[in-house]
Specification:
The chain has 351 residues and is α/β, with parallel strands linked by helices. It is 34% helix and 24% strand. InterPro entries: CobW-likC_sf, CobW-like_C, CobW/HypB/UreG_nucleotide-bd, P-loop_NTPase, Zinc-reg_GTPase_activator.
Length: 351
């Protein structure tokens, strides 16, 4: 996963979320708002969502590519590859005109394989740049979906940006609880409410979530709350007044969790590479997103790494600034990852 993107690459956004979370509303809104931008939309057709495509087609001049393959989860990687490759070819020949693509996954899809397509295939990587994964969460049904469907939890773990839709249908306390729950699963992704799909385009496009850059945004509240993974309530939980008498987020022990590793001691590069290589082999399928900005022995530059499942990439970033604390910081988001094994292993890689 290299970050050295050539300027001619077409940015791609993956839009995911459960049925009814408002993906189509958001898409239509984007197509109306994005004046002067030509967007190709790839839809994974699946059951009832198909009704919406006719609306999209009549309202805009976009090319919509239906992938009628029944179950998306199984065969999307191959189909998506072909679809993307066709799009790139037609664009080169001047048959199609578009500047970016949005892939709307079905409510049941796992965004992992979709994201991996952009890194595993050279032809695709030469034409497209995966920009970000955006996840929509329906405020009214989120708790039930997150409790019962691992796909819904995975979609949150993968996200670079999360929008809570239909927040007007529940009270503010419920939105705060849901936000809190989401932060535990994914402290990297900003969480915002989206009213009827009204979202500023700069919150959707060019987020550079997959760029290897020295920005590792972790919600500061998450860090203060969970530095030592203590299961007790913190002051910032008590904003909801009368909601304080019932148990908070830890009522949900979600299998998608995140943890942060920090150290002020530099890493030994060879040891770290061996360890990360080993855990990715073992836990890769359960590792959704991971990212870090590292202080490495032997270089005065930051080392940036990130990955999706088994695919991991790293790059040299900018130099540490004079006076800047050379703290390595990593975040791992995954399904039931053994935090102790990771933490001990990473400690063992410090110089």
């Amino acid at each position: 996963m290299s970050s050295t993107a050539s300027p001619g690459l077409i940015p791609a956004t993956i839009l995911t979320g459960f049925l009814g979370s408002g993906k189509t509303t958001l898409l239509k809104r984007v197509l109306h708002e994005a004046h002067g931008q030509k967007i190709a939309i790839i839809e994974n057709e699946f059951g009832e969502e198909d009704i919406d495509t006719s609306i999209l087609v009549t309202e805009t001049k976009e090319q919509i590519i239906q992938m009628n393959n029944g179950c998306v989860c199984c065969s999307i990687r191959e189909d998506l590859r072909t679809t993307l490759s066709d799009l790139a070819t037609k664009r080169r020949k001047g048959e199609l005109d578009f500047e970016r693509i949005v892939i709307e996954t079905t409510g049941l899809a796992d965004p992992g394989p979709v994201a991996q397509t952009f890194f595993m295939d050279d032809e695709i990587a030469e034409s497209f740049l995966l920009d970000s994964i955006i996840t929509l969460v329906d405020a009214k049904h989120a708790d039930e979906q997150l409790n019962t469907r691992q796909e819904a939890r995975r979609q949150i773990g993968f996200a670079d940006q999360i929008f809570i839709s239909k927040a007007d249908l529940v009270d503010a306390g419920a939105v705060a609880e849901l936000t809190h729950r989401i932060k535990h699963m994914n402290p990297r992704a900003p969480v915002q409410t989206a009213h009827f799909g009204e979202v500023a385009l700069d919150k959707i496009f060019d987020l550079r979530g997959f760029n290897l850059n020295a920005k590792l945004e972790i919600d500061p509240d998450f860090l203060t709350a969970d530095d030592h993974d203590h299961h007790h309530d913190h002051d910032h939980d008590h904003e909801h007044g009368e909601h304080c008498d019932h148990p908070h987020h830890h009522a949900h022990d979600d299998d998608v969790k995140s943890f942060v590793f920090k150290s002020d001691r530099p890493f030994n590069p060879a040891k770290l590479e061996d360890f990360l290589g080993a855990i990715v082999q073992v836990y890769g399928p359960k590792m959704l997103r991971y990212k870090g900005v590292l202080n490495m022995k032997g270089t005065d530059k930051k080392v940036i790494f990130q990955g999706v499942h088994q695919l991991m990439g790293s790059d040299l970033g900018p130099k540490w600034m004079p006076g800047e604390a050379k703290t390595s910081k990593m975040v791992f988001i995954g399904i039931d990852l053994p935090q102790e094994i990771f933490a001990q292993g990473l400690e063992g890689c410090l110089a």
